[in-house]
Queue: 4 jobs
Job 1
Amino acid sequence: MAKALFGHVGMSADHRLVDEVATLRRRVADLQQLCLRLQAENDALVAAARVPDDLSHLADSYDDEVREPAFS
């Protein structure tokens, strides 16, 4: 039993597995950075696309009016 345990503990890691884990961690970090960048760009676009309050008020009042059908 001691030899089996020592063999298990003393084994070196598979280099392919270590490389794959490192690659996946880098990819996750890259994707997290991309998400942060896209969120910042989206926030900037939303801020730039804000409709002034006076125009949004006009749109709201138009929706509140009773619309008549085009053809009776």
Job 2
Amino acid sequence: MTLQEQFEAAVTGSKLLTARPDNDTLLKIYSLYKQATEGDAPDDGPTNPFDFIAKAKYNAWSELVGLGSETAKQQYIDLINKLKG
């Protein structure tokens, strides 16, 4: 199975987790997915200073700047597999 196929399976598996992960883990899942699929976060983040969720997501994603797509995919796969048990 290729890395892309494993990643796609992990994305599907992430929607079938039996327990909801904590917020920090959800941010990690989000940021790894975005880094794997879109690359580095844009320079300018959310413009609404009161949108705390968007800001948290942007900050988590921007922490991964420079992480390669393949590495992000592998880390995403590893995290989902760990959460599945």
Job 3
Amino acid sequence: MAKQKIDYDLIVTIVNKGFSEEVVEASKKAGAEGGTILFGRGTGIREKAKLFNIVIEPEKEIVLTLIDRKKTEQVLESITKSVQLDKPGKGIAFVLEVERTVGINHIPDLITDE
């Protein structure tokens, strides 16, 4: 079987704490194999809230989804619908083109050495 080069994108989704599993499930339903969840905190101008005059920095979850570029639009659309990214305060997602990958060994017939 001839080896085929796969072009990848990285979908980065940043949501409020507790919503990362919904992002991963939505991406899997649309064709992704999974994702990586990282934890962070918001520092935007609208991120800080106060409780008894103490600043509370909201916790965020960041989902990294490495995806075959052919599936990017359908996965991004699924994530957007699932966690309502089109509504204010729900989170953001953006796509980065991936120039090179190493270590994706579970699909060896499709990977080529460059």
Job 4
Amino acid sequence: MRLRDGTVVRTWKNPVGVDHVFLSDRNHKMIYGGFVGWIHSQGLNQALDCIRRDFT
């Protein structure tokens, strides 16, 4: 998803089911990359829903 300020949020689930999130600036330069454990996947999805609602 692309935020109003041009930041791009991308997610990826690796083959064992770990969720990763990456942020890049409007020039496609990565500014953050991280992951959450399985028990936090639902919280990540809820946070992404809030970000989508409030910042896109």
